[in-house]
Amino acid sequence: MTPSRYWDGQTYDRVSAPMEAMGLAVLERLPLRGDETVVDAGCGSGRVTAALLERLPRGRVIAVDGSASMIAAARERLGGRRGLELRVGDLLDLDLGAERADAVLSTATFHWIADHAALFRRLRAALREGGLLVAQCGGAGNIAATHAAAREVGAREPFAPYFEGWTGPWRFAGPQETEELLRAAGFARARCWLEERPVTPDDPQTYLREINLGAHLERLPEELREPFVDAVLARHRSPVTLDYVRLNIDAVA
C-alpha cells in the first residue's frame, strides 16, 4: 500500500508488542500444513512474520509493506531467513505474476487503505481457488475515544488551522459491509466480526505518537507535535487504556 503516513520502523517495532499479540492471535486462525506460500499483507517490522515463518518450515512467505522503513526493520529482524521475500509495495498493486498464494495473512493494515473494494479484488486475484484470507484491522468504533480527544484538541488554537476539513486517512469498517465487499470481489465465503481488544501501552506518549496520532502529527509543524500529543493524553484517564475494536476477516477464495 502507498503509505498514508510516514512510519518509523524502528520506533514502531519498539512499542508494537500489543500489535504483535493481536497479530499472533490472528495467525492462530490460519490452518497451515507447513509447505504453503503465504502473503503477509502489511508485514510492518516483521514481528508476526517471524512467527508465520516458524509455521512454514517447507513453505514461503511474501512479506509486503508500503513503508520502506518498516521493510528495513523487518529485514534487520529476520535477516536472511529461508523462504522469505520482503517487498516494499502498495497492496492495491500487488502482483504475484503467474504465481498464486495459498493464503493471505494481514494484521493492523487494512484500515489504512480507503478503497476496500479494490483491495479485496487485488487479494482475491493473488489467491488460488480455495485459498484463504485471514485478517484483522481496525473496525467500526476503533480508538473512538482517542480520535474524539484528538478532534477536540485539533479544533482549538494553535492546532485548528492545520486540521480544517481533514477527516483522516483511516477506514474503520463494519462486518456486514466488509462481507459484502469480499463476496463482490469474488470470495466464495466470508465471515467478519468485531472484537474489543483494549490496549494499555507501557509508554503511552511514544505509542500514541507513533501509532495512533502519527497521521495527525504529520499535519503539524514540529514545534506543535509534542504539545498536541500531551493535550490528547491529558484527556485520557490514567492508566491510559485505548479502546481498540478489531474487525476480523475469514474468507475463502
Describe the 3D structure.
With 253 residues, the protein is an alpha/beta fold. The chain has a domain at 9-140 and 170-202 and 244-252: Vaccinia Virus protein VP39 (Rossmann fold). 39% of the residues lie in helices and 20% in strands. The protein contains eleven helices and seven strands. It has helices spanning 9-15, 17-27, 47-54, 68-78, 116-126, 144-154, 160-163, 175-184, 204-212, 214-217, 222-233; strands at residues 37-41, 60-65, 84-88, 101-107, 127-138, 189-196, 245-252. Strands 3-2-1-4-5-7-6 form a seven-stranded mixed sheet, sandwiched between helices. α4 (68-78) links the parallel β2 (60-65) and β3 (84-88). α9 (204-212) packs across α11 (222-233). The model has no long low-confidence stretch (mean pLDDT 93).
CATH fold descriptor of one domain = Rossmann fold
Class by alpha and beta content: alpha/beta
Q: What is the multimeric organization of the chains shown? A: single chain
Order of helices and strands: HHEHEHEEHEHHHEHHHE
Instruction: Spell out the CATH superfamily of one domain.
Output: Vaccinia Virus protein VP39
Proportion of residues in helical segments: 25-40%
Number of strands: 7
- Give the C-level CATH assignment of one domain: Alpha Beta
Q: Would you identify the CATH architecture of one domain?
A: 3-Layer(aba) Sandwich
Order of strands across the biggest sheet? 3-2-1-4-5-7-6
Which percent range describes the beta-strand content?
15-25%
Morphology: globular
Largest sheet features: 7 strands, mixed
Stretches with pLDDT under 50, minimum 5 residues: none
Rg, nearest Å: 18 Å
Whole-number mean pLDDT: 93
Distance between the termini: 21 Å
The helix count comes to 11
